[in-house]
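User: quick one, fold this
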Amino acid sequence: MGLFINLLFAFLFVFFTYYYVKKSFLLSFLYGLVFFQAFSVIPSLIYIEQGIFINEQGRFSFFTGATIVCVLYFIFTFSIIAMAFKTLNKTRLPVFQFNYKGKNVELLIVMAMIIVPLILLLINAVLSPLPILDSSVTRFTYWSTSRFPFLNSLFGNTAMFVPFAIGLMFPKFKKFSVFMLFVFFGYNFMIGQKFSPILQGSYSFLLPLVFYYRNNLKVYIKRALVPLFIVVGVLTAIMYTITYNKYEETNPFADIKIYNPNEAIVYRIFGLQGHLFWGATERYLIGNEAPKSFNPADLLYGMPIMMEEFAKNKKDVLAANAEGGYNFTNAYPGILFEIFPLSLSLVLHTFLVIIFLALMGWVLKELMVGHAYVLSIIAYQLFNWIIYAFVMGYFYKMYFAIFFMLLYGIYIYFRKKRNLIYE
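Assistant:
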């Protein structure tokens, strides 16, 4: 019965997604990473609620209604975003482009924002022990053992703004863009980043193209469909082969008696994505026995709090998080349930979605449409961090978005004031 109910709600979300995409493909694509989160967590919860042993939590799962809560959460979130955009789209965001001696230098700056970071990151990779060559180094420990670890703070773990910038260059510099995209993927593969950078990197590359070709999107989609399927198929085959060989060698889930690499892959895909959401639902919503912290500051570093709450080896897990950035996944919105009762959680979530997730997405859209390429790269990085916060529960990254929006708000204020003077 539990499986039937979960599948029913899963199909409800599929129909909702179809309607959402049909209503506005551009808005849906803009929030594609959030949709990806939904389509990774929901199947995971269905799998978990069938009853499995959750390795990270050291306990068996059971039906709690977490899948139902998750589906309603995502429908609620996307509905808020749509309503916020309906209001925000009534106005236009003033944008500006960079010029030097009367000439537009946007593309030159964008090119520098691609080449310089990649050169620095590749130099760091060459001078550092790499996961692909050294089994003692993982993607979690690479940066702490690298020659120039400060680059992580400067460009981020995977420099996801780079493929976005490459996508901005593609319409006018196709060969250069394709070459640099492969360099980006090659670099991330070297440092142990495989599935996520390929997925997010491809999305980041395609996002500006979708908005650039938005008036003839159907034509370009038909042209790109076959090559896209081929590329996705090849990359999927490569990732599967690498993962299979790695799991065959390391047996990462041997402690729960999973030795077959294919079974391990299935467990990795479905058994881990939604376990924090399941745990938070069971402990804070259904059981409602655990006390709430009533401390919104818990959102700043929500992932370590959730790991401390649910990890079976709390000390080891938190040490790995502090030293190498090791994380579970999808700590949000579970961390909200740890802070407030459901009613207050919904109020706070609505506020956060409107002020950050929806507003920054709209700003990014306006900058892309207005061909403010340099500013759109900055906005995309901030938008990416905001999505990361809504997935992993690290809301301290909002500080950068707040600073940017305040700075840009001041610019708009003085620009309007100057225009009034000249009028």
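User: anything notable?
Assistant: DSSP finds 19 helices and four strands in the chain.
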